[in-house]
Amino acid sequence: MTAQAGLRPAVERADPKAGSRKADRAARHVFRSRRVRTAMVAALLLTAGGVLTAIEVISTLLDRPVRVFPYGWVSDAAWDDWYVLAIFGALAALGLFFLLAALLPGRSRTVPLHGGDPALVMGVSRRGLRRAVAAAAEEAPGVSGVARVRLGRRRVTVVAETPVHEPAGLHEGVAETVRDRLDRLEPLPDRSVRVRMLHRGA
Predict the structure, then answer these.
(1) H or E segment and range at residue 54
(2) What is the pTM of this model?
(3) pLDDT tens, 63-111?
(4) CB count, 10 Å around CB of 13?
(5) Which helix H or strand E contains 122, and what residues bound it?
(6) Which secondary-structure segment (H or E) carries 151?
């Protein structure tokens, strides 16, 4: 199948221009997952810890310690005690979790699309992209429906239904149709296509 007029297939951008690279970086940045829930949990924990510590310090300075924390055992604890090491290990693991959550990209609900202008970014929802892939697969010869579309970071997996008893070779036509639709949409990054045919009687 050929691309529609005015739409540039992804295969033609083997050597993209600088403007296209900037536009792609801008789209990825805009639609990157912000991990709002993780950031909110971290902010709440830090705020709660700061407030409780402030209450403890201020009440102690006023000679009326509230003793929010049962820190009496600290005077008898040693650095190499198992429970002390366990607490430090848990705090280190929690800090590492929040650090990785901040550095590693999350799973965004919006897939960025290739563009040529860094000031104009475009995207499509993951559900919308799955629907577009399913609609393209249903247009392929021998396909009666689509059971499932799985959208990975580097691959699109389509499970297509067919009434044909011997569906050998049909998956190639489905894959070509889906690839053509992806080349028109140009999602970032480029994704390979994997098709599995599922026989369903008419």
Answers:
(1) helix 36-61
(2) 0.57
(3) 887 777 666 666 676 777 787 788 888 888 888 888 877 777 667 788 8
(4) 17
(5) strand 122-125
(6) strand 145-151
